[in-house]
Amino acid sequence: MLKKLAFALALLPFAVHASDLPEYPFIHVAGEGFLRLMPDMGEIDFDIAAYDADTNAAVAVVQARVAEIQALLAEQGGDPGKDTEAEVSFADMRKEMRKPANPDPNAAPDYEIRSAVHIVVRDLTKWRAVMLGLLGKPNIDHMSTSFGKSDRIKVEAELTATAIKDAQRRAENLATGLGKKVGAVTAITNGQLRNLTNAVGLLPTDMHNNRRGSNAKAGEKDFLTIQSLQWSQTVDVIYRIK
């Protein structure tokens, strides 16, 4: 009796799992939509970093860079407001411990002043001028760029429609091989929209680290090129088999 009970309990997980499956003949397929398109907006992130034994002097340097960046964007038809060709936001200044190349364990810690900057460029004809203006400035650190689409929701809808058509094609091929036909859709779910560059584990190609805060040169990294977008969308679909 005990052996029979133990055997029944061992089969219980399989019975629960099987009960989650449809109780009719079905085909389960995955479809994928893929798009390569050009962006219509870009974003720039970096820190303004300054060091001076006199903290007030370092703060003054950061404030001067902030004013220069605001002037640069104003020249390109933007301002710190919203919905302009280029807008900028500055985080509050903060103190971070400085790590010198040859630290003296007996010396008092040094601090540098930093402010995070985020720029949105909505008119990419201004991209090159904005980037050249930034790359020519000192005290720019940890710069990165990214691109996107303002009509992202529309793009997602197009990708999903393409993925569903791909799933339908795959299901019909399977059913034909069995001498059957595809029936009604009984379940469907979509996977997350993916940026293919990040999905395959590649490192970002637009990162620039400059711990010393010296001038960034355009030849070190190609920040001037507008990169195309590669997006994919997957769907999982369950069809009845006729």
Q: Would you spell out the secondary-structure blueprint of this structure?
A:
Blueprint: H1 2-19, E1 26-37, E2 41-50, H2 55-75, E3 86-90, E4 94-97, E5 111-121, H3 127-135, E6 140-148, H4 152-177, E7 182-190, E8 194-195, H5 196-199, E9 229-241
Antiparallel strand pairs: 1-9, 2-5, 2-6, 3-5, 4-5, 7-9, 8-9
Protein name: DUF541 domain-containing protein
InterPro entries: 26kDa_periplasmic_antigen (IPR052022), SIMPL/DUF541 (IPR007497)
Organism: Rugamonas rivuli
Count of separate structural domains: 2
Mean pLDDT: 80
The fraction of residues in strands falls at 25-35%
What summary fits the major beta sheet? 5 strands, antiparallel
Task: Report the uncertain regions.
Answer: 2-18, 197-219
Integer-rounded radius of gyration? 28 Å
What is the element string, with H for helices and E for strands? HEEHEEEHEHEEHE
For this structure, the CATH topology of the largest domain is Alpha-Beta Plaits
CATH superfamily annotation of the largest domain:
Ribosomal protein S10
Record field, number of beta strands: 9
Helical region count?
5
CATH classification class of the largest domain: Alpha Beta
What general form does the structure show? elongated
Oligomer: single chain
Q: Name the structural class.
A: alpha+beta
Percent in helix = 25-40%
